[in-house]
Give the backbone structure.
Amino acid sequence: MSAGTTWMKAVELEVVEPHAELVTAREDPQWAARALRLVEECGRVSHKSEGRIRPGSAVPFVRKVAVEWGHESILEHASFTACLIGSRSMSHQLVRHRIAAYTQESQRFCDYAGEEGKARLKVVVPPSIGTPMPGSVVRILDTGGHAVVDVSHPSQPVSEHLVADTPLFRFCWDALLAYSTYMALREDGIPAEDAREVLPNATKTEVYTTYNLREWRHVFRMRLDKHAQWQIKKCVREVLEHFREVCPVVLEGLRTHSGEAMP
């Protein structure tokens, strides 16, 4: 079966907002205090100063050794896990960081043919192309014999027909076409691991990401820089804001890759 207008009318897109879920903080609200105590215990063995460990001594120790002296290796003893939700293109940037542990939603084993008879692909739309509300659904409608790209949202009673030949129209049309091709291939018996080759980079993915605290400092430097890509910057900023609230000493002395103050 070829992927034409008929198939395109049977599929939908759902717009997803890139964001981060703070896994470690959710599972252990006291993670920061525990992490800093661990870093202090490990770090003090260098000069055999374990006898100086006191309640409240971890933060000044980390500040002096890791921030002021620049011996950041002690921060490698503690880690933080976040789940970053964004597009496949975002995840390609993310996995360049080392040292790390990643577990990603697999396009090979996840079948994007839909659930409960609803063929809907979750995608990320770059703001430069358009700004449909997160949760918006994009589909093809037949209005008097003319196929139009329609955007609707549960909170809005009236849907919007996209203007043809605009960036958002072309983005949605091509994504719907790619997804309809995927669906047609699956109906023809092609395995999901092969049919996925036609899915767009905009396809939503989830990546559970674990970095030690030293690597998080590096990630903040690189991904909050003025030249960083908007999507990964948004996800990483959410992690940064959590660190600012509960573990600010790890952020002390940080500047972006370009030398600006940390935003």
The first helix runs from residue 5 to 8. The mean pLDDT is 92.
